[in-house]
Amino acid sequence: MSTVVTRLRGRQDRNVWFWVFVGPFFLGLLIFVYIPIVWSVYLSFFDARNTVTPTRFVGLGNYSYLLQDRAFLTSMGTFTVFAAFIVPVTFAGSLGLALLVNKAKVAKAFFRSAFFLPTACSYVIAAMIWRLSFFNGARFGLVNTLLRGLGFDNVNWLGGGNYWYWLVLVTLRLWLQVGFYMILFMAGLQRIPTDTYEAAAIDGARGWNVFRYITFPQLRSTSVAVLLLLLIAAFQAFDEFYNTLISVGGYPPFARPPLVYLYLISLGGGTQDLGLGSAGTIILTVLIAVIGLAQLKIVSLRSKEETS
Amino acid sequence: MSFSRRRFLALTGGLATAAMGVTGCGSNTGRPNSGSSSAGGGGSKPALSQWYHEYGEDGVQEAVERYAKAYDKADITVKWNPGEYEKLVSAALLTDKVPDIFEYGNGPTLDMIKAGQVLDVTDTLGDAKDQFSAPVLAPMIWEDKVWAIPQTVDMQMLYYRKSMLDKAGVQPPQTFDELIDAAKAVKTKDVGGFFAGNDGGLGVLGALLIWSAGFEYLNEGKDGIGFADPAMYDGLAKFREFRKSGGVLESASADWFDAAPFVQGETAMQWTGLWVLPQVQKALGDDFGVIPFPKIGTSGRQAVPIGAFSSVVSAKGTDPDAAKAFIKWLWVDKEDYQVDFSNSYGTHIPAKTALAPKADKLASGAGADAAKFVAEMGHGPDLLWTPATAQAYTTALSNIVLKNADPKGEIAKVDAKAKAEIKRVNG
User: Fold this and answer.
1) Which residues of B touch A49 (CB under 8 A)?
2) What is the ipTM metric for this complex?
3) β-bridge partners, B146
4) What is the crossing angle of helices A61-68 and A70-103, to 10°?
5) How far apart are CA B414 and CA B209, in angstroms?
6) Residues of A in contact with B10 (CB under 8 A)
7) Among B84, B243, B257, whose Cβ lies nearest the Cβ of A269?
8) How far is Cα A116 from Cα B6, in angstroms, rounded to an integer?
9) Closest CA of chain B from A216, distance in Å
10) H or E segment at B403?
11) What is the nearest CA distance from A160 to chain B, expressed in angstroms?
């Protein structure tokens, strides 16, 4: 008996300490992440309106409904447009900033902090500032005041009568996240050995060529990680869309990314279709996983080609 | 910015939304910890929780707390809920800690009724049913049972600045064509012609475009929409023309439910609610008037929307019978409180028609006009016009106005959605 207990406790009570440290975290993960995910999967096969313990099994009904639902498919289109803007722009912007700040001779720490600071700001607060102050469509919005001063007309930024809302949404996220990815790139830059640059300099490499043939290839693993993170973050876009565009009349049908659409279906107040909402999140999760894996695969194939 | 109660009132079709708030998880139901009625022995009163959303007018919270305190057959704890109230309620109803009594715009949703989350209060209302305004009560009736008791009636109408219209030489518009012309005529570089929200009226005017063109949400057989008609398509095309005429102010310092854009002179006409009347009177004195939404096309009619926040009893509450007794006491029997609730904080219309003359704010001027509009041209929501159908209609409207989509094709999609929804809820 006692030998069993001793063995279970492990050498120097290692197993006990393992669970003391890991246990609470694991429990939290179980309760707040894994059980809800499993529950969502369960709900997605039921007609679950205004209940979390549904009784009417509908099989794949929720899935087939969503895959034929024009609004859901449009929301995927909205996401694609958003990702097509935000991923390359943030990538280029954060890489550019990282290169500049890395080269800075003075006040490097200051610039690094200054660009990183917006990351600490909440999406909700930033959305409020963008919506109510900068891009307010009324004549006293900040940008409109500037435009009027220059003799232009007011622009109704978020009204949907034009496509200016993309400018609002993209600049907002860019401001919030570019500093974070800059830090990732700076960490990558500092890992490149200086003697590589010295050797290149002796061979006569300058400016663009140094970047093209040394810096960028050496940043490959960082770039892959950044792209993947950016894409996933874009997929999860919710806060800035919801908080810049929601109004009393409801969320407008344009610029509605998948998560906002699913939120309105499942938790929107008037409708509480948890089965449909769950099915949507499962579809999104699978998509993110597939795209992420495909991207990793493509990149690893390319690196194999280059090494062979 | 004063947020009015109407923020949540789904007068335009039950679309549940709120502006920018962030929902907090409400673990506190507001129910006192002293235990439930079943726990207490002889003599102890049941303890009940009652939920309200955050009313914008000063004094409402104190008033409802006062009413609750005055009731001697139960201990009522009022919970005041800032933020996205409807989401808070629907989330709470999924748990075991439900509010015993809660208010909801135009009664509970059909899904709440069908999921068994709320109780039928027909017996509570009893003979008093006939004392309530019929179109107000209509959306709270399902399968001949009443599911909520109306607390107070709210309505919306068009406010205009007399001086600005006079200066431009136009009369208050009676028809939609006149509205288009008037808005263009009064507009200046700094003052918009007509304002109905920062979405250009897509959210709040949707239902009015149906009623003013002479139609109803649903057809007589109640199995599809009631406005798949060429006159409706023409009206929608007219609305698109209006939006592009330059007379519509599409952005202002606040949304349509707030008096600010109108009283600050940002617009000459604004579609907003009766509730802002005291603010408008204070700011503009006599320099304003009110009219219903103008009629559209030859078969049209003027219209105003009405709606009512209503008291609902949870099925899973601690003591449903005590909860029913309380809402009967407050919203059926205590007429002095009902008048106080409607008349003392902002302007509203008592839900029982006989009480309207006792509300002095409705006795003269714009208040009296509003009461007349409600009686003669008031339209309320329809339970079968579900949130999903309302969403489909808003999408159609947005596509027609913003993307130049063909009204007929878009309305056909709304009809398909409505048919599917009606079939679902009847199934």
Assistant:
1) 111, 114-115
2) 0.80
3) B141
4) 70
5) 15
6) 270
7) B84
8) 41
9) 42
10) helix B387-403
11) 7
How far apart CA A227 and CA B147 sit, in angstroms, is: 53
Q: Where are the alpha helices (DSSP H) in A52-120?
A: 61-68, 70-103, 108-116
- A172 to chain B nearest CA, in Å? 17
Question: Which residues does chain A have within 8 Å of residue B390's beta carbon, measured at their own beta carbons?
Answer: 270
For residue B215 the two structure tokens come to: 């139609």
Query: Nearest CA to B272 among B287, B286, B288, B295?
Result: B288
Nearest alpha-carbon partner for B179 in B204, B207, B217, B212: B212
CA distance A165 to A251: 14
Q: Which residue from B7, B93, B395 is facing A50, i.e. has the nearest CB?
A: B93
- Element containing residue B379 per DSSP (H, E): strand B378-379
Q: What is the DSSP string of B338-397?
A: HHHHHHSSS--EESBGGGGGG-GGGSSHHHHHHHHHHHHHEE---TTS-HHHHHHHHHHH
User: Which residues share a beta bridge with B142?
Assistant: B145
Alpha-carbon gap, residue A270 to B11, rounded angstroms? 13
Phi and psi torsions of A189, nearest 5°: -65, -40
Q: In 3D, which of A262, A291, A293 has the Cα closest to residue A279?
A: A262
B92 interaction partners in chain A (CB closer than 8 Å): none
**Cα separation of A282 and A37, whole Å?**
9
Q: How many CB pairs under 8 A join A and B?
A: 129
Specify whether the CB–CB gap between B63 and B12 falls below 8 A: no
Burial of B168 (0-12, 13-18, 19+ CB in 10 A): middle
DSSP alpha helix (H) spans, chain A: 2-9, 14-29, 35-43, 61-68, 70-103, 108-116, 123-128, 142-149, 165-190, 194-202, 207-210, 216-218, 220-235, 239-245, 258-267, 274-307
Tell which residue, B196, B168, B195, has the closest CA to residue B182: B168
pLDDT tens sequence for chain B (427 residues): 333 444 434 333 333 333 333 333 334 555 444 444 444 444 588 999 999 998 878 899 999 999 999 999 999 999 999 888 988 998 899 988 899 999 999 999 998 999 999 999 999 998 999 999 888 999 999 999 999 999 999 999 999 999 999 999 999 999 999 999 999 999 998 899 999 998 889 989 999 999 999 999 999 999 999 999 999 999 999 999 999 999 999 888 888 999 999 999 999 999 999 989 999 999 999 999 999 999 999 999 999 999 999 999 999 999 999 999 999 999 999 999 999 999 998 889 999 988 988 888 888 889 999 999 998 999 999 999 998 899 899 999 999 999 999 999 999 999 999 999 999 888 7
DSSP state of B95: S
Query: Residue B144 corresponds to which tokens in the numbers above?
Result: 């001949």
CA A278 to chain centre: 20
CA distance B400 to B413: 12
Distance from CA of B206 to the nearest CA of A (A): 9
Note whether B306 and B136 are within 8 A (CB): yes
Rounded Cα gap, residues B63 and B238, in angstroms: 45
Q: Do A247 and B255 touch (CB under 8 A)?
A: yes
What number of other Cβ atoms are within 10 A of residue A206's Cβ? 8
Q: Which two tokens stand for residue A143?
A: 């940008």
> Is A250's CB within 8 Å of B391's CB?
yes
CA B173 to mean position of chain CA atoms: 24
Residues of A in contact with B391 (CB under 8 A): 250, 264, 271
CA distance B382 to B222: 10
What is residue B116's DSSP assignment? Answer: T
CB contact under 8 A, B87 and A269: yes
Nearest CA distance, B333 vs chain A (angstrom): 30
Cα(A47)–Cα(A58) distance, integer angstroms? 6
Query: Which residue type, as a one-letter code, is found at position A116?
Result: F
| Helix or strand holding residue B113 (H, E) | helix B110-114
